[in-house]
Write the structure tokens for this entry.
Amino acid sequence: MSTLEKRTFSVPTRAEVSANNQGIFDNLQKGLGFIPNLYAYYAKNETALGDYLTLQNRKSTLKTKEREVINLVTSQINGCHYCQSAHTALGKMNGFTDEQIIEIRKGSASFDSKLDALAKFTASTVENRGRATEESKAAFFTAGYDEANMIDVVVVIGDKIISNYLHNLTRFEIDFPLAPEL
């Protein structure tokens, strides 16, 4: 009987990635002041970092705060502590309080009826693998969202699932202030 050895995953340094990814690192350093470990990990693959950043930075019908609601809800449901931590920091930068972020991570936003409908629709979509309840869909549309918004919600969920799964598989170091456990 053999024992399975637990594999550890490391985040590459700038010197350990391709010239193309080094250029992306340099742009991230200029824009963010650091290279988040998640982004650095994508650079182990020649095209994944650029592809992911293109997806993440695409134009959207959703406002930044709305995208943060989707990111927080999805990351909570998927149990990704890295993304919970990163999006807690980003949520605060975008005007959410600590209390509001905790509530959003739990799948609601009683402080804003439109964001509440979005949080509940996102939770229902993620929990049910795209088969959101009729009630959550009706509330989403009643709150003022349209089908173009729904498409963007699914794109943001997909973006976040990619990162959630990648960190859940690797568990590399979290380089943001840790989000509180719920």
